[in-house]
Please model this.
Amino acid sequence: MEGVAIPALCSVATVMPPAVAKPVAARGNMHGYFHALFRCAVAHGAVFRACCPVEEIIVDDGRAIGVRLRDDATWGAKKIWANKAVISACHIKPTFLDLIGPRNLDSGFLQRIRDLSLKGGSLYMSHFLTRERLRYKPQYRTKPAGEYGAVHGGFFPLDSRENYYENVRIVLGEQSNFDIPPERAMWGMVGGELYDPTNPQSTRPGQHINGPLWMMVPTPQYNVDGMDAMDKDKGKWDEYMRAALASVVENLDDDNLIRMFNESPYEQEFRNTGMLGGSWYGIRCDRDQWWNERPLPEMARYRVPDIEGLYMAHQSSAHPGGLCLMAVGYNLMHILIEDGIAEPGDWWYASPWYIPQDGKIPANRS
Amino acid sequence: MVKELVGKPHSGSFFSEFPPESEWDVVVIGAGPNGLITAAYLAKAGLKVCLVERRYEIGGGLATEEILYPGFYSNIHACYHMMVDYMPVLRDFDLRRHGLVWIKPNLQTSMVFEDGTSLLLTRMLEDTADSFHKFSQKDSATFGRVMRTWRKLVSEIIAPGTYVPPMAPVDMAVAMQRTELGQEIMEITEQSPLDIITSHFENDRIRALLLYTCCMWGLDPRETGVGLFVPLLIDRGMNKCYCQGGSHKLAASLAREIVQAGGCILDSSQVNKISMSGGAVSGVELWEGRTLHSEVVVSSLDPHTTFLDLIGTENLAGDLKDSVQGWTWDKWSYNTLHVASEEVPRYACRDPWASEAFMTIVGFEGTDQILAHWDNVVAGKVDMESFGGHVTCQTLFDSHLSRFPGKQVSFFQMHAPYGIEGGWEKRGPQMKEAMLAKWRKAAPNMKPENIIRTSLETPEDIEIRLPNMRFGSIKHGDYHPMQIGCFRPNQDCSSGKTPIPGLYLCGASNYPGGLVIGGPGYLAAGKVAEEMGVEKWWKPTPEMEKYVRTYLE
Model:
């Protein structure tokens, strides 16, 4: 995908190391980030409708012309018509398989959509509410260690390559629930102690929020024991997560732990339908679904072949992928300008690495 | 919150796009319903408004959150919206434009009893009368007759009067004496809720339903001088609305109005101090070290927070200080058990309709039991063998609260003391089990295998989440004769304007009070606009105009 992929790659490559070393959180945490974007859009005239699930993207004569809402939408008229474009920020699979469907698409294309892999990003998530800050075992404390130590975007355990392969075997190969002891399960965790003291995570006196602790687990859709294989025995896996963290933390006992908040990949998909399979990557980040090929080569520039006026803007399953890069909307803007959909004012600046597409309106007109 | 850091400015690296010092026409403290309303009116009037909120999310009591994580949302505070028919803000902004949908079921409240009988309180008068008829023909007839008068009292005087600035009692008495309906208001006001109910109705279960309905928000059943709330709360208890998508949608709609009008909402920002200069307000200082300069500050917080904490006693005149320090909090608070379940609660009573009510009262067999429970609560106790409360299955009306198709979200709410014997940390888990057992007794399908997960919100939790609801006071302060009308919070401040130049009040502790009626915010906006010489773009509703014309002029 010329023009857009390379800067995104550079961005990831240059931003990630310092970001991992010192993660940046918006005031109000990630929801504060949403507020800023949301209010910016509202202030500029955007209309938002919450609790309005879309059931169908209406396509007429090869053109996307609007959406039909679910019957219980908080909107009297269940159809919304679009003069210029319909932009789907839903995951690519439900966009084509459910919202557009076979009535407007050929079977070959639909098969390719069905075949997009969800593997590799399904996470089991746990937060720990504790009375005392987590105290890391001396060998795991960062410097300066202090009384409790700290974890900065920590990944454990990283003792050996065999350990990594063991986890990968289960998750990607066997595609079954873990059969390895929790102390060898690989996980990562955000350190709650990184937050600004005037922007605390926990507003409960004397209580601390720790996490999220995340662990890559089999994608429910591919779990050989069934989609809800982990959820049938969720209490066991919640405890597994606790045991995994307890291998590096001294004080995760019943006296200290007030409550855990756990979320399986299966549950994540219900909470946020954009996270199909609970995958934080949307679709797998592999050589067939990456860069110019993401999500499919003909859609890497967000246009949809054979359906005029339809664009893809899902954070994770579109190029360049998820992790709050916030690149999709900006990249897409170039395409909307190229197609004459958007006509921005003086505020707009195109990416310096943008390469106009032949036959289109250049988005770097300044 | 990290206690040792409270009150100490901190210059963090966040927020760098927001300047350390900024100038505003108006700063509003607290983005609860009233703060949002005040900010929305004033922003649309062309003023440069900044609304500051401590929490990460706006709305205050208009909170619909994933308290049953993961995937189940519940209205953790306000759920029953009683003044939708009258709130000027809904009309003035035409909030339907934001997809705000109100659902007002006919079957408003059911009360179920151990012997399988039940009572209904419905929007349509005759359905209630029919239900009463099962217990008392006389009460059925009385209800129809009394409600005809009470509805008139509400629609002509009490409801529109909610959005008209308060008057001194003597002026109000003179005005009301001029009409028959006004005289009726004066007469009923002098009585206690218990007297009013028992003098009209003979059947104890009917009395229990009506007493619970009019006192459930903290009215003392035996207190005289608050009787005008009885027709109001029964009429409004028959007209409760549910906000589809959750109560937060009301807050979100107002926030969009503020932003569209050029206002700024600064959330995750706690006000540490209201700055003073030359005896007048000059702005606010935020915890993270930023200063918002403004000659007008409108506080939606409770009197102690506004005056004692943010202004400081050194800046208060003696009588104002005495009044604030004498403020009394709500008589009781609420303990709420939120539940995600596989099935809708189904009550074991002969009338299946009782299971479809917006609210179902469980655990009480008569007035004595209700009164004993409230007496216990006021004394800091709960009798684990004899308590009750009300239940709402929200997903009966709102599928959006559950991300899992077919699963349900409900809550069981009971009156409870803030300072319970033994403390909430110890008693909370006991209360949770007792509430589930009580609920199961009334609705046998609420057995363990039906329950997916629970979350208990105690009175202490209310205060932690919303600190200006001190001691779990959801109305920011008691309703008694010296804290209602022009005495709320005191005669100097009930109009919204305070004796401190530039300081205004718009919260539930101001006239006309709490429960998401939107009155204090509306009245404060009007007052600020008048004082600043800003043209009001809004007009009184026809009901308000009629009330003023008929009863006050």
Remarks:
- Residues 5-21 of chain A form the longest helix (17 residues).
- The longest strand of chain A covers residues 208-216.
